[in-house]
Structure formats: C-alpha cells, structure tokens
Predict the structure.
Amino acid sequence: YDRMPTFPGDPDFSLTPYHTIESIGYNLLQVTMPSHCGTHLDAPSHFVAGARTTERIELGRCIGEAHLLDLTHRGPGEEITLDDLAPYDAQIQKGARLVIRTGWERVFPEPRFFTEFPGISIPVARLLAERQIALLGLDMPSVHTSEFKLVHEILLGAEIVIVEGLANLRDIPQ
C-alpha cells in the first residue's frame, strides 16, 4: 500500500496512479520501492562483493519442501541461539530450506518492527553456513538488529538465500 513503512534509511515505498479507467480505459500504478522492502530475497551480492545476484541464484534453492522452526518464545531484541535450534537439529542439513517463525510479523507496521526484532546469533549463522543449508526464511525484516553485517556476511558468504519479512507464518503447519 502507498507509504508502506520501509527499513530506516531506505527509500520510501509509493504507489502512484499513472493511468485510470476514465483516462485511457484501464488502471495502472507506478510502483517505486527499495529492493529491501516487504517480503524480499537477499541474494549473496547484498553483502558479498562479486557474489551472485538474484537472477543468478539457482531456482531450486528457493523451491521445495521447507522446515518450519517455531521460535515464538523469542521476544524483542533477543537472539536466536544454538539451544533454540537443538530440537530441529535433524532438519538442519545440506540443501535444507528453513523458515523461522518468531511471530514478529504481528508487530508490522509499527516502527519498532524494524528496530527491536529477534535476531540470528553469530553462532547460529555459522552453524547454518557449516551445514550448507540452501535457504533461510524469516518473519523479521532482517537477520539481526546490530550484528546484521556480520550475520549477513556469514550466511550470504555460504550462498544461503535469505528471505526476510515473511508474513502469515502463523497459518502454516510444520
């Protein structure tokens, strides 16, 4: 929707009527948005110089069975730890697609959605990279509030596709 909140410091999102049914027979909107807006994919090139851009990612990394990790016990600003992942250890394997549900999507569009979300700890990022998972989906707007650069570099350096800002995960079973 027009003026949808975006990550602090990112360009605004806007929907501007360009044509209308009355003017030329159909409605057409002009969409202006940053690439890091709403539900979006982080390609390795997002933080790793010379790495794969979105169009060079193998589509198979993004399509297929995914495992839902329910971490709704994690609150604002808390880190997701290795202990949190322990019950899901068997699912954290090479090529796995993991989706983390924290319930943080419910906070959108409050400004704190972008500043107080739970984050992926550095040890968790390293484990996921070592295990060579294919994709990590999150219901948060980014991977961490303060250590975002290092966590992104670890995950994207291992060519893990990150999908941020997922919505309606409460409706998805395991």
